[in-house]
Amino acid sequence: MNKKKKYFISAIFIGCMFFSCLKITAQETSKNLIISKDLKWSERMALSIMKRAPKAWQIDHNDKPKWDYKLGLIMTAFENLYQKTNNPIYGSYVKDYYDSVISSSGVITNYKLEDYNIDYINAGKTLFDLYKQTKDERYLNAIQQLRKQLETHPRTNSGGFWHKKIYPNQMWLDGLYMGTPFYARYTAEFDGGKDFDDIAKQFEQIHLHTLDKKTGLLFHAWDESKKMDWADKKTGTSPNFWSRSIGWYMMALVDVLDYMPKEHPKRKELIGYLNDISKAVAKYQDQSGLWYQVTDAGKKQGNYLEASGSEMFIYAFAKGAKNGYLPASYKKLAIKGFEGVIKDLVTVDDDGEIHITQVCASAGLGGNPYRDGSFEYYISEKIKVDNSHGLGPFILAAIELEK
């Protein structure tokens, strides 16, 4: 065998071993992952997540695979990271999750259309890329199931999607992120863009009914019926501003604009909404670069600088400035914010693993036990380390700011 041929075979062998190791690394225990401090923050966080949860469904200490909006958020972040780095370890992590919750025929684990839960839509966003990459029909079948839900999903009289069937007549800011980016991509890629007016309507209704003209911020939710105890009897709005809910709304805007054609008449309107809310949010940025759990309450006793809302604002500012939706000055605010996250909210273990602290575990309105939307309620919810709400937006924000 000549030297060239020998070298070629050796190179193939080493290459195969390399990709084989990547696949194993994505699925094995923590001892097999090395998290170098020389890596960018996006990859350091992604590898730290994989180290703690070799299977994506294990994030948040889940004991079995499930279809979940929080996992969908993290899978969106991992897919974006895969697209940027071309490192198959991240793509494999995403695919492995969806293969654990979608059957060979495209049936989604623990998904029930008749629940009419807008949260269910969010995890479907990454399926578009998976279907493009694999041409596997089960991913397309799952996409179509989720789109079917939107056809019959209950709405307010003014045309806005209810947050859930169990929350009748209510629109929450959270729901804009859960539903509209998926809806926008579907109509762009499968329906010739015919539904962009309906997508814009969701933002129009939220803007019309939750905007506080005094601060420029948006209240967490609106009850069209005004029957909920938390709803203002004149306006139907909930009583406070929750940073993560505003963050969901802002991320929804910058993501929907990825798919809305430049010539569409509603595009300018959505960019206007993004500028309005960004201007209001910027006023409440703390000197640390971060934002408080209750956005406008500052250092009021019990309020705290919260990770997920801060990261979502950073992502929206950075992406909005990069794509020309926002003035370039917002990138500086995003950089200041991300530096604050690293300085005040990130901890690093001796082995390089990183953690995100001060993440609100969950917050909502109504339900049992009853959540009244008061300041006291928002600051009383559990604060966690490495909660998924803080992991996904960290990676998304980092990607937008990394050169």
Describe this structure in words.
It is a single chain. The chain has 403 residues and is mostly helical. The protein has two domains: 42-153; 156-172 and 179-403, Glycosyltransferase (Alpha/alpha barrel), CATH 1.50.10.10. The chain is built from 15 helices and six strands. Strands 1-2 form a two-stranded antiparallel sheet. Strands 3-4 form a two-stranded antiparallel sheet. A two-stranded antiparallel ribbon has the order 5-6. Helix 3 (69-85) packs parallel to helix 15. The longest helix is centred in the first third of the chain and has 25 residues, at 3-27. The chain is globular. It starts with a helix and ends with a helix. Mean pLDDT is 93; it is low at 3-30. This is Glycoside hydrolase family 88 protein. Residues 1-26 form the signal peptide. GO terms for molecular function: hydrolase activity. Keywords: Hydrolase, Signal.
Tell me the Rg in angstroms.
Answer: 21 Å
H/E series, N to C? HHHHHHHEHHEHHHHEEEHEH
Q: How would you describe the shape?
A: globular
Question: How many strands, which pairing sense, and closed or not: the largest β-sheet?
Answer: 2 strands, antiparallel
Report the total helices. 15
The protein's oligomeric status is: single chain
**Any low-confidence stretches, pLDDT <50, length ≥5?**
3-30
CATH C-level class of the largest domain: Mainly Alpha
Strand-residue fraction? under 5%
